[in-house]
Design brief:
Length: about 220
């Protein structure tokens, strides 16, 4: 049976799997309140679904329309927005934000205070270090053209993004690539390549022993 703390709010229709824990002051299944200029869709959303043995930690918010897999942890004061899908065994660190219409693959870890922008794709076993910022709008809210071009990054399987890095809109970070701390990623990153700097530049290949699938 799920375990819901008496101070938590679980909205009607939310589906909680076996062994789910919803801790103090968490909110699950909240419908969004959107600003007039928001690009997000406005239809009423279906209930949130939380997989078996997932923990929604103290003060976390999970919006309606989100689907969270089994064995996940949504950390204290983290936020998972509408139409987000988290695969099994995903960790969303304390204070992190996963914006709307984003997909996060199995086993991915998003560390504390990271910001994953709307319309992003993170594949399996990705590592996002603390305070990483991703972006999706080259026009920063100006002109109608931005709406058709708005896109977050695609971060491929096993890629790692170091602390405080900034990833510009529409960037692809290749499979098992490594982005150094503090980098500003303005161009696509090839697979199995280490980049760092501002702007980020390729430095060398990722060592064979660090690959998920050596060879």
């Amino acid at each position: 049976m799920p375990d819901v703390h008496e101070t938590a709010v679980v909205h009607e229709g939310t589906v909680l799997g076996e062994g789910v824990r919803v801790l103090e002051y968490a909110v699950v299944g909240k419908q969004p309140a959107l600003g007039k200029k928001s690009t997000a869709k406005r239809e009423r959303l279906p209930p949130t679904t939380i997989g078996d043995d997932t923990v929604i930690s103290a003060g976390a918010i999970v919006f309606a329309g989100a689907t969270i897999g089994a064995g996940c942890i949504v950390g204290d004061q983290a936020c998972v927005r509408e139409r987000v899908t988290l695969g099994d065994d995903v960790v969303v660190g304390r204070g992190s934000m996963i914006e709307n219409d984003t997909t996060v693959g199995r086993g991915t870890r998003v560390q504390a205070d990271a910001y994953v922008t709307a319309y992003s794709t993170l594949e399996e076993d990705v590592f996002i270090a603390p305070c990483v910022v991703t972006t999706n709008d080259n026009f920063m809210g100006r002109t109608e053209r931005r709406k058709e071009l708005m896109k977050g990054p695609t971060i491929r399987r096993g890629a790692r993004v170091g602390g405080g890095a900034i990833v510009l809109p529409g960037i692809e970070i290749g499979e098992e690539a490594f982005v150094g701390a503090g980098a500003v990623v303005t161009k696509n990153v090839p697979p199995k390549t280490i980049v760092y700097g501002n702007p980020a530049r390729p430095v060398r290949d990722v060592p064979e022993e660090e690959l998920l699938s050596p060879g």
